[in-house]
Specification:
Elements lengths: L15 H9 L7 H34 L4 H5 L1 H35 L20 H8 L2 H33 L6 H22 L1 H19 L3 H12 L2 H22 L5 E4 L4 E6 L9 E7 L1 H12 L4 E3 L1 H10 L11 H18 L24
Parallel strand pairs: 1-4
Antiparallel strand pairs: 1-2, 2-3
Helix pairs in contact: 2-4, 2-7, 2-8, 6-7, 6-8
Length: about 375
C-alpha cells in the first residue's frame, strides 16, 4: 500500500482537486508498451499501403543518381543541385510514411490518460537525481513489473519470429530461383507481413501493461485521511467555495420546494410579489401546512406550477404576505391566521363542489383581515 513521506498509509481515494492538480503537473497514466505497439503496427500497415510506391520511387532516385556525367561530378554547383534534388525526392518518398508514424505516435499517447499538455511537465525535476530514491526504485514493484514486461517481450518476439520464419522458410527458399524484381517484391511482402505479425504479438504485453499503469497511477494519487481532512478544511474555508455551496443548497431546496407545489390545496398570492402554497390534511395536521413560498420570480414559478396542475390561485395580498413572513416552509401557519386561512379553504372547497356540479356557485370571497403584526408591509 502506498505511503506518504510521513509514513502514513494512503488509503483514501483521490479527490477531484487532487486529480486536477495531478493533471496540471503533467502526471497522467501512460503506457509506453501501447505507444510502441501502435507505432509498430502503423508502420507495418503504412509499408503495406505505400510500400510498392516507395520502392518505385527509390528505384527512380537510384536511377537519377546514376545519370551523373563527368562534368556534373567535377562541377560543384551541378553536384549540389543534384544532391539537393535527390534529398528532396527522398523526403517526398518518406513523407507519407513519416506522417503515419507521427499521427500514430500522437494518438497512442492520448489513448491512455487523455490529452494533457502542460508546461510544468517540461520543467526539470531535480528530485529525479536523488541516488537514494533511485536505489529504491530499482527494488520497487514497478521495476519488477518492467522486468516481467521485458522478459515477456523477448519471449513473445522470439517465439513469434521463430514460428514465422519456420513457417515461411519454404517461401523464402524459393526467392533464390526467381528473377530479381519479383524476388524483391515477394521478399518485401513476406518481410512486411512478418513484421506485422511480430508487432501484433506485443498486444499481449499491452493488455498486461495498460491495467497496470492505470492501477499504479490510481495508487499514486491516493491520499491519507489527514490529507483529505486538510484539503476539505482548506477548500471549505474559502469564501467563494462557501458561497457556491450555499447557492447550490438554496437551488436544491428550491427544487425540492417546487416539487411539493402540485400537492397544494390552494396558492394565495399578492398577486405578483408573493405566493404561498398551502395544504390542509385533516388527519395528518392540526393546521394548514406551508408547502412552498416565494417572492418575485419564485412566486411567478409557484403560480405557473399551480396553473399547470389546476390548483386554485386566490389573490389575497394581506394574507399572502402574512403567511410568507410568519411561516417557514414545511411548518404550520400560526394560530392567528387559522380563521383567515379557513375561510379561503372553505371557499376553495365550495368552488370545487360547484365545478363538479354538486353545489351552487359560491359568492365572491370577502376581504379578509389579518393581524398587522404578521404583515410588515401593511399600511
Amino acid at each position: 500500500m502506498a505511503e506518504n513521506q510521513d509514513g502514513q498509509e494512503k488509503t483514501e481515494e483521490p479527490t477531484s482537486k487532487r486529480k486536477e492538480e495531478s493533471r496540471r503537473d503533467g502526471e497522467v497514466a501512460r503506457s509506453k508498451e501501447l505507444s510502441t505497439a501502435v507505432i509498430l503496427l502503423s508502420a507495418g500497415m503504412a509499408l503495406l499501403v505505400f510500400g510498392s510506391w516507395m520502392a518505385n520511387q527509390a528505384l527512380d532516385i537510384f536511377a537519377y543518381n546514376f545519370e551523373l556525367t563527368r562534368e556534373d561530378v567535377i562541377t560543384h554547383d551541378a553536384m549540389f543541385k543534384h544532391f539537393g534534388a535527390s534529398v528532396w525526392y527522398a523526403l517526398g518518398t518518406l513523407l507519407p510514411f513519416l506522417i503515419v508514424l507521427f499521427f500514430a505516435g500522437a494518438i497512442s499517447q492520448v489513448m491512455v490518460g487523455g490529452w494533457n499538455l502542460t508546461a510544468k511537465a517540461l520543467k526539470p525535476k531535480f528530485s529525479k537525481l536523488d541516488p537514494i530514491a533511485g536505489i529504491k526504485k530499482i527494488f520497487s514493484k514497478n521495476s519488477l513489473m518492467e522486468f516481467v514486461k521485458s522478459v515477456a517481450k523477448v519471449l513473445l518476439v522470439g517465439v513469434t519470429a521463430f514460428i514465422i520464419i519456420y513457417g515461411l522458410s519454404a517461401e523464402f527458399a524459393t526467392l533464390g530461383a526467381m528473377a530479381l524484381e519479383p524476388a524483391i517484391a515477394k521478399g518485401s511482402y513476406l518481410v512486411i507481413w512478418s513484421f506485422l505479425a511480430i508487432s501484433l504479438s506485443l498486444i499481449i504485453v499491452v493488455l498486461l501493461d495498460v491495467p497496470w499503469q492505470l492501477h499504479q497511477h490510481r495508487e499514486k494519487l491516493k491520499m491519507t485521511r489527514q490529507e483529505v481532512k486538510d484539503e476539505h478544511k482548506n477548500t471549505e474555508g474559502k469564501p467563494e467555495v462557501k458561497s457556491r455551496i450555499r447557492r447550490m443548497q438554496m437551488e436544491m431546496a428550491q427544487r425540492r420546494m417546487m416539487s411539493d407545489v402540485p400537492g397544494a390545496d390552494v396558492v394565495i398570492t399578492n398577486p405578483t410579489h408573493y405566493a404561498v402554497a398551502l395544504k390542509y390534511d385533516e388527519e395528518g395536521n392540526s393546521a394548514p401546512l406551508v408547502l412552498a413560498k416565494g417572492k418575485e420570480q419564485v412566486a411567478a414559478k409557484i403560480r405557473e406550477i399551480a396553473d399547470y396542475y389546476e390548483i386554485p390561485v386566490v389573490q389575497m395580498p394581506p394574507l399572502a404576505r402574512a403567511v410568507y413572513f410568519s411561516t417557514e416552509i414545511g411548518s404550520e401557519i400560526p394560530q392567528q391566521l387559522y380563521m383567515a386561512v379557513a375561510q379561503v379553504l372553505a371557499w376553495v372547497y365550495q368552488m370545487k363542489q360547484y365545478q363538479a356540479g354538486k353545489a351552487k356557485k359560491p359568492g365572491k370571497l370577502p376581504a379578509i383581515k389579518v393581524p398587522k403584526e404578521l404583515d410588515p408591509e401593511a399600511d
